Amino acid sequence: MELLSLIDQLTHYKGEPKTRPATDDEPLSEYSGKTPKQLKNMLRTMLKARRVEREEKLLLRKGYNRFFIGCGKELADVAFAEALEDSDPFVGYYRNKAFDLHRGSDLWEKMLEAIGDSRSQIGGIQIPAHPSYPQFNILPQASPTGSHALEAAGLGSAIKHPSPISKNAPIPGGAYRQDAITMCSIGEGSTSSAEFGRAVFYSVFDHTRNIFAIYNCGWAISVSVEEQFPEGDPTTPFEGYQRFGLKIMHIDGTDIKDVIAKAIEAVEYTRSGKGPVLANVKVTREGSHSGSDDQSFYMDPVEQDWHTYNDCVLKSCNTLFEDGIVTPEEVSQMWEELDKEISELSTKAVATFTPKTAEFINKRVYAGGFDKAQETWRKYREACTIDRAAKFKEYHKKGYFQTPELPETLGPMTMRFAINYTLFDLFQLTEDVLMFGEDVADFSGHMIQEVEKQAKLKGKGGVFLVSKNLQREFGNDRCFNTPLDEAGILGRAIGHCFQGRRPMPEIQFLDYMSPAYQVLKDRICTTYERSNAQWTMPMVIRTTYGGYKQGAGAFWHSEGNLGTWMNIPGLLIAVPSNANDAAGLLKTAWASTDPVLFCESVALYNRRDWEGVPIETAIPPLDELIPFGVAKVYDEENTDVGIITYGATFQMTRKAAELAREKGINVRLVDLRTVKPMDEEAILQTAKDCGKVLVITEDRFPGGAAATIASVITSGDGLYDLEAPVKLVTSIDARVPYGTDGDTIALPTVEKILAAIEDIHNNY
C-alpha cells in the first residue's frame, strides 16, 4: 500500500479496543512480556524506516538520489533487534533499515546516505541501505547477497574459536564475547547461492551461535520462490541438518505476536549453545524490488493485493489498536513528528551536500603502508617474551629442523625451508596467527589426539610440506584443516578478521581460487572501502602458483594468471623468487593492514639451482621486513637489455642472462617481488638506462601482468627512452597441457627468453 494511503487508513481507524493495559510498563504475556512502551517504540521504528524510504523516493524524483530499495520487513527487523543484545553482531543486507534504526542509527545519517554524501558514516561510497556501523555492531553490507552469509558463518566460528586474541591485535582481546550471536538476514532469492548453503553447513558443522533469518516475500526481483525450492520453502534443503542441532523455524513476519515470540525463541535457543537457527520468515513486498522494477508487470493482481493488505505496519497497528496498546491519535502524532523531522533533515542534507573526490576514494582502498606494517611488527615484537634461540634448539631436539641454530645464521636455503622457518617465527610471535586450509595440518581426525602415534609418523603439513610441524607444535586450534571449499576457507578468514585476529588461510593452488572469487573480490577486498575505512581485513592468503612441475602440473595446477587478481582493488600481491625475499615479504604481508595474496611458486620450493645457476639464498634477520612495491635490481651496471619479471621466471631469466653474456650481451635484471603494488620507478629507470626492455611472465598476455608492466613504460615518459618496442615473453593463450612437453609448449623457457634477448638486442 502506498505509504500516505496507509497512514490515512491508520489514522482513521474506527474500531474499539477490546482491552487496555493498566500502564505503559506492564509486561504483556500475549506479546511475550513486551510492555506497551516497548511495543510503541518498535512501531515508531517501523514508521521511521518507512518514512525514510519515502524520502528516498522523493529525493530520487528530485534528482538528489540515484537509487532506493524497498523495505516491507520492518516488523521482523525490530523483533530481532529487540530479542538480540546490542553487542551481538549483525550481518544484514539492503532490507534492514528498521534494524539499523532500532539499534540506534539516526535520521541525519540516513539522509546523508540517501544522497551519497561524503559526510555519512559510509562516506557516500555505497548506495542507500548499505550501512557500516561499528558502534552498533552492524557489519559493513554489500549488494552481492548470499556471500554475506559466509561472513556470518565465519564470524560465528571465529567468536567460538578458543585461541585467545592478544592486546596487540587489530581488535585487542577480540570484538565479541564467546556467547555472542551472529545474526544474518537474507532474502529468499539469495539463499539459492552456493555461499548460503555452505554458510548454513558451517554453522551446523562448527555448532556456532548463528541465526539465519530468511526474509521470504516470495519473489527475487521477478523470480518466484516456487522456482527456487521444493514447496517454495528455502529451509527444505537443510532439513537433514536438524539431526545435528539446527533449529528450523517458520515465522509469520506480518504477525506482531508471532514474530516477537519466535524471535525470542530463536535467540534463546542459539544463545544456549544448542545450535544455529534457520528461520523462514514470511514477509510482504511493500513495493517492487527497487526503483528500477515494477512488479505489476509480472505479479498476479490477487497476490499484489495480498502483499498490500498484509503489510506488517498495517497489521501491527490494527493489532495494537485492538489490544488498546496504541491509539490512532498516537500513530498520527508519531507520523507527523517523523514526517516533519525527516523532511527538515532531508532539506538540510541536500542544501549542504558535500561531494566525494578521487583523493577521498583512493584513501579508502588501502588501509596501510610499509610504515604501518613496521609499526605493527615492532608492537608484536616488543610484547613477545619468548627466548627464540632456546626455542629453535627445542625444535631441533623434537626433530623439526636439522640444526638448532637460528634460521638467519644458516646461510643459503631453499624457499620452502625459508617459508617454514618464517611461519614458525610468526606462530611463536603471537597467538593471533592462525593457519587453516586444505591439508595444512600434520594430522587429521582422531590422529589429532593420538600424540604417541604421531611421534612415529612424519605428518603432512601441506601438500608441499611448507606448514610441516606447525600443528604438531602449536596445536590444532592454531593450524587446522578445513573442508575442501575455497569460498568457505576465505569466509572463515573474514570472520577471524572481524573478531580481531590476523589469519593466514591457504588456498592450495591459485587454479582453485576461482570458487572463492566472489568472496575475495566482493567481500574481503572491498571491506575497507565499503566500510569507509572503519574495518580492515589483515589476512595473508597463501597460495601456490605456476608451472614448471616437470609435466605434473598440467591443466589444473599451473595457473600463473596474476593479472586476474591484480585487477581487484584493495588486494596486495607478493611473488617472491627466492628464500630471502620469501621470508622478508611474508613478515611484511602478515603485519600489513590490507589483505595480501602471497603467491609461492611450487617450482622454486625445493630447487637449489636453475640449470646450474644457484638460486638458494640466506634469509634476513627476524626484524628485517621487505617493503612491498620495491623491486630488486640485479647487474644494474648492465644496459644492453633490461628484463623485468618476478617469481619463477626471474630465476630462469638469470640463466638466460648468463647465456646471453657468453654472446656479448649484458642484461640488467629487475625482480619486481610484488606486482601489487608495482615498482614503477624501477621499471621506468630500466627503460631509461637500457632503451631495450623485455617483460617475462607466466601470466598470459590478454589481461595479464606483462601488459600492465609494459604499459607503465609506454603510457608515460618511459616511451621516449625506448630504442625498440617493449618485447613480451608470456604464456600462450591456453592452459598448460599435460606431460613433459606441456610446460615447454605453453610457458616461457630459458630458450624463448634467450631468443627474445638476442632479437631485441640485434635487430633494433
Characterization of this structure:
The protein is built from 28 helices and 21 strands. By secondary structure, it is an alpha/beta fold. Among the domains are: 3-164 and 175-356, 3-Layer(aba) Sandwich (Rossmann fold); 633-762, Rossmann fold (3-Layer(aba) Sandwich), CATH 3.40.50.920. The strands form five sheets. Strands 9-8-10-11-13-12-19 form a seven-stranded mixed sheet, sandwiched between helices. A five-stranded parallel sheet has the order 1-2-3-7-6, sandwiched between helices. Helix 2 (36-62) packs across helix 4 and helix 2 packs antiparallel against helix 10 (312-322). The chain is elongated, with a radius of gyration of 30 Å. The termini are far apart.
Any chance you could write out the topology, listing elements then pairs?
Elements: H1 3-11, H2 36-62, H3 74-83, E1 90-91, H4 97-103, H5 107-115, H6 147-160, E2 182-187, H7 194-205, E3 210-216, E4 219-220, E5 223-224, E6 247-252, H8 256-271, E7 277-282, H9 301-309, H10 312-322, H11 328-351, H12 358-362, H13 370-383, H14 388-397, H15 415-429, E8 433-437, H16 451-454, H17 470-474, E9 479-481, H18 486-499, E10 502-509, H19 517-524, H20 527-530, E11 540-545, H21 562-566, E12 572-574, H22 579-591, E13 596-601, H23 602-605, E14 609-610, E15 613-614, E16 632-634, E17 641-645, H24 648-662, E18 667-671, E19 674-676, H25 680-690, E20 693-700, H26 705-714, E21 727-731, H27 742-746, H28 750-762
Parallel strand pairs: 1-2, 2-3, 3-7, 6-7, 8-9, 8-10, 10-11, 11-13, 12-13, 17-18, 17-20, 20-21
Antiparallel strand pairs: 4-5, 12-19, 14-15, 16-18
Helix pairs in contact: 2-3, 2-4, 2-5, 2-10, 2-11, 3-4, 3-8, 5-11, 6-7, 6-18, 13-22, 15-22, 18-19, 24-28
